[in-house]
Design brief:
By secondary structure, this protein is mainly alpha-helical. The chain is built from eight helices and no strands. The longest helix has 31 residues, at 46-76.
């Protein structure tokens, strides 16, 4: 495949690299001019010490401001909760409470971790939050739930905005997606 001429980087990679280096060199050779107010001059050796001390004080002040802002940012971060150990019955009860709030198994795991309860420590080998929910008949397939929620939102939007062709297409696409998930999970 041929390039589009001598200026095309694809036709001559060496030339493209050379052009790039030339641009960098030009920008270093010709620095941007500064205003005369911004430039501080060092007139004599006597005033050189005062010049250095003034600049040193300004640098120290800037560093203190930066350190203060870093401390503020670190205090905003939430601290990790203390680890909690629960019995198996308490753990299952906690899962059923969260499931009653219409949370999926992934969201239940996230909320437990935020509370300092790590599911892996409380579950037996081969057991999962979703298996506990299936035992209690409160398992909701997360894929189906998420797509259904989105479908309902888009359907309501399309109901109020009939001219929105993208929404019309999205309703059809999501309806198909819900049907395919139900077929795959053998819910139909």
């Amino acid at each position: 495949m041929r390039g589009f001429g001598p200026r095309d980087p694809g036709s001559n990679p060496g030339r493209a690299i050379q052009t790039f280096l030339n641009k960098i060199n030009r920008s270093n050779i010709m620095p941007k001019t500064k205003k005369s107010e911004d430039i501080k001059e060092v007139p004599t050796e006597e005033s050189e010490e005062t010049f250095l001390t003034e600049n040193l004080e300004a640098v120290k002040k800037d560093l203190k401001e930066k350190k203060g802002s870093e401390k503020k940012e670190s205090s905003k971060k939430s601290k990790k909760p203390e680890k909690q150990t629960l019995t198996e019955a308490q753990f299952k009860k906690k899962i059923s409470e969260l499931a009653s709030q219409d949370l999926t198994s992934e969201k239940i795991g996230e909320s437990l971790r935020r509370q300092g309860i790590h599911p892996a420590e409380h579950l037996k080998q081969g057991q999962s939050i979703s298996s506990i929910l299936k035992e209690n008949n409160s398992y909701i397939d997360p894929d189906l739930k998420n797509v259904n929620e989105k479908f309902e939102r888009v359907k309501v939007h399309f109901g109020t905005h009939k001219q929105d062709q993208r929404a019309k297409r999205e309703v059809a696409r999501l309806q198909s997606q819900v049907r395919n998930i139900k077929l795959y999970k053998k819910l139909i």
